[in-house]
Design a protein that fits this description.
single chain; 431 residues; mainly beta; Immunoglobulin-like; Cyclophilin; 3 domains; eight-stranded antiparallel beta barrel; six-stranded mixed sheet; elongated
């Protein structure tokens, strides 16, 4: 089979969607030696405070920090000291932030500590409210800025467990430090929690929502927050020449199976659905970044989800179709009658034969279990070949066909597998 050119390969496999996605509130995990406390931050009501807190997080200021104050029934406080060679050491303070009190200091909220006579003096220290402290903390010193909330009962249990530990008096300001055994309560790190939802999973070719189902071998894009690194990282190959399932700290797990990773970034990732989902009715999908997993989401599994890659990476407009000489069919360079063309898509479903997931296809071409049909303006036309694409990762669909007698201009082109058609709105340009 004709191999797709390198530039088109990159275009197919690393294209990013331009669809707008709702940004969820960021979540972080306080990893302590007692257990994890998960917190949902509130940048919508305390933007400067959240930005200030995350600045300390991003530079690692809170790594190996301690809870240095515990007042049972009131608060537990940290952020001011970290262990350096086992010795509590002051964490350097950045410029103070303007007070943003709006959220009441109820049980489970996290708020900024500040000086008693200055409402705008919050820097690096924060505290968890063990009880409803609104009657006190909402009404003094301009109100204490709550900028997040503990998100689960298990996290509240850890918060209460820390508050229930004995206190060791090591002299001010460590005269009320909670102790676990013979050691401080240490915040080993504060990590971002990845967030993704089933509503934000789409085909990587059509960008149509996958809430109706995903298919084996399909390329998916998953949107969210803290899913990967700030800078886009694209696929890499392992020592066997297969696409890695771990990329720049990110994995996507389908029923626990790590999928080949196409690309990853903080806001979106792309992965190839494992073939072992064939025959299943549903799948649990989990995004993991730096060892922290997003809540799982469940989607239906369907036999196929055909889609065609487009030149503008939107799922609409001119399709990615090339001639045998490798030139791209465009509006300015349309196809002629009887030209042999190569169309690229994905989502053709289960295979009857083929290489393992993530393999760069060479001699063993994946064979779709069910026939792939070519439709132009709703009419079926014969194909010369329909199956795996040589030189590309398993999952990319290659369809070879001869251009029939068509009027000049754009013609809607679709792929069909069983009763599933690729979305409308994708064109083939002819002259």
């Amino acid at each position: 089979m004709k191999r797709i050119t390198k530039s088109i390969a990159v275009f197919c496999l690393a294209a990013s969607a331009v669809c707008a996605q709702t940004t969820p509130a960021p979540q972080v995990r306080f990893k302590t030696n007692i257990g994890d406390i998960d917190v949902t931050l509130a940048p919508d009501v305390a933007p400067a405070t959240v930005a200030n807190f995350l600045n300390y997080v991003n530079k690692g200021a809170y790594a190996n920090s301690i809870f240095h104050r515990s007042v049972p029934g009131f608060i537990i406080q940290g952020g001011g000291f970290k262990l350096v060679d086992g010795v509590p050491t002051v964490i350097p303070e950045d410029t103070a932030v303007v007070n943003e009190y709006k959220i009441s200091n109820t049980r489970g909220t996290i708020s900024m500590a500040k000086l008693g006579d200055n409402p705008n003096s919050a820097t690096n220290q924060w505290f968890f409210n063990l009880a409803d402290n609104s009657g006190n903390l909402d009404n003094q010193n301009g109100g204490f800025t709550a900028f997040g909330r503990v998100t689960s009962s298990s996290s509240l249990t850890i918060m209460d467990r820390i508050a229930g530990l004995p206190i060791q008096n090591l002299g001010a300001p460590l005269d009320t430090a909670p102790y676990s055994g013979a050691s401080f309560v240490v915040v080993n790190n504060i990590l971002y929690i990845p967030q993704a939802s089933a509503a934000a999973v789409q085909s990587a070719a059509s960008f149509v929502s996958s809430t109706t189902g995903v298919s084996p071998g399909e390329f998916l894009v998953l949107y969210g927050q803290n899913l990967g690194p700030a800078t886009l990282a694209t696929l890499t190959l392992d020592s066997q020449g297969k696409v890695n399932t771990f990329l720049a700290g990110t994995r996507v797990l389908f029923n626990g199976t790590a999928a080949p990773m196409v690309y990853t970034s903080a806001g979106q990732v792309s992965a190839i659905v494992p073939q072992n989902l064939a025959g299943r009715s549903t799948v649990s999908i989990v995004v993991e970044y730096l060892g922290v997993q997003a809540p799982g989401m469940t989607l239906p599994v369907v036999s196929a989800n055909p889609a065609i890659f487009t030149q503008n990476s939107s799922g609409k407009g001119d399709s990615i179709v090339i001639r045998l000489d490798g030139s791209l069919v465009t509006t300015a360079n349309p196809a002629r009658v009887d030209d042999v063309l190569i169309l690229y898509g994905e989502g053709y479903g289960d295979i009857s034969d083929g290489p393992p997931d993530g393999t760069i296809v060479s001699t063993l071409l994946p064979k779709p279990l069910d026939p792939v049909r070519l439709l132009i303006d709703g009419k079926e036309y014969p194909t010369l070949y329909a199956g795996g694409a040589g030189g590309l990762v398993s999952g990319v669909l290659q369809v070879n066909f001869k251009v029939p007698q068509l009027a000049p201009g754009p013609h809607e082109i679709q792929l069909q597998v069983l009763d599933r058609k690729s979305p409308a709105g994708v064109n083939l340009q002819t002259r």
